[in-house]
Amino acid sequence: MGSGREVVQTYVTTQVERLLAAVPAVRDGDDDAVHDARVSTRRLRAALSVYRPVLDRAVTDRLRDELAELGRVLGAARDAHVERHALRRRLSQEDPSLVVGPVEQRIDEDRTAARLAAQDALDAWLASARFTELLTTLTEDLPGGPKAARDATTVLPRRARRAWDRLDHAMEIAAACEDPEDRDEAMHEVRKAARRARYASEVAAEAVGAPARRSARRAHRVQEVLGTQHDAVTRQETLRRLAHQAELDGESTFTYGRLHALEQRAGEAAQEAAAKPLRRVARHGHRRWMG
Fold first, then answer.
1. Three-class SS of residue 93?
2. Could you tell me if 13 and 51 lie in one domain?
């Protein structure tokens, strides 16, 4: 199988190739390409973070910081697009008699403006020396760290276990939250920890095989259902802001309130649906491969 560094380097190379393949379409404003680039960026950041002992930490820390910033820029562009379509779909399902005022127009103008501003920031980032330097470093063989030579089947499971411990801790905090807003934020942290555990397992799967892939699937399910919950919470914030703007302009806020209530219920339903995946991911039987 080889060393941990070799496995991580192979994974990094694959994700960099996917990122590079998406860049031309990202520059053209293709939202699917933005999504693909964002996923590759997140996978890179997770791999460099979880498996830092097999690589040079000074290099990986700098790369992770740059990838975090790139991820935020990609996320702003992607989220505005997704939210616009989700809110329009929600609005289209309403009885026309319950749509009072230029609600669709406000949604379109607000989210389109956010998407265009985000695309401008993304274009600037992709044209920057920072991005060029980031790609240059990532496309080279990364220097090894103190555990670079250790066997992949030993070092990778142990490091992956840390990512899963982090998920356990996030779930404990979320379970103790009583305030709804605090709980929403805590569940978002659970989602991020699940994503990290998933990607850590995907890397380790190159050395461990099927057991790690099973763990990755469990974490992915948590990530998906809590993503639905977080998106609903975010849309509620947007609707509150749009309602406030409508009120200032003398328009009815009735429809925004209805949509907000529907998004609130969608978020609650997603949180209820998360119970089973969270129980499954918390079980330690599927984690035996971590040692």
1. coil
2. yes
Final residue in a domain of this structure, among 124, 150, 176: 150
- Tell whether pTM > 0.90: yes
Residue ending a domain, choose from 150, 168, 200: 150
Q: Report the domain count for the chain.
A: 2
**Structure tokens that stand for 33 in this block:** 């390409």
Are 121 and 163 within one domain? no
* Burial (CB count <10 Å: 0-12, 13-18, 19+), residue 178: exposed
> Can you give the residue range of the structural domain that contains 264?
152-291
Name every residue whose Cβ is closer than 8 Å to that of residue 123 and which is 6 or more positions away in sequence: 27
C-alpha dist (Å) from residue 189 to 2, 199, 281? 34, 16, 15
**CA atoms of 245 and 251, how far apart (whole Å):** 9
**Average pLDDT per block of 10 residues along the chain, 291 residues long:** 91 97 97 97 97 92 96 96 97 96 97 97 97 94 90 96 98 94 95 98 96 98 97 97 98 98 96 96 96 81
